[in-house]
Amino acid sequence: QVQLVASGGGLVQAGGSLRLSCAASGRTFSRYAMGWFRQAPGRQREFVVASSRSGGSTSYANFVKGRFTISRDNAKNTVYLQMNSLKPEDTAVYYCAASSDADYSGSNYAKYDYWGQGTQVTVSS
What we know:
It is a single chain. This protein is an all-beta fold. The chain has strands at 4-7, 10-13, 18-24, 33-39, 46-51, 58-60, 68-73, 78-83, 92-99, 114-115, 119-124. Helices cover 0% and strands 47% of the residues. β5 and β6 (58-60) form a beta hairpin. The model has no long low-confidence stretch (mean pLDDT 92).
């Protein structure tokens, strides 16, 4: 069992950067693969990026390739999403999620067992 708290969202101008954080409770963070998803008003939840528990396997959505980077610090029970070159279409609520399948790094939201509350990212034009 793990609880996740996402933070770091805010309002930025197009071309700017944000770093999102997802803090996990307990001492079992290293047992889980981690992912980020986002959902904009009127749209389906979409996959952004994921990382296996070791960080050795990652998967990025095409629309963020070269702009976003996932990283994790198991000692701090925290996963990060560095977002650069932000675009207005990146505006959404961003959710972090944990998968009990420690080796998973894919886009299937059903594989993720635990979800954070989400943090709002707004990119102005």
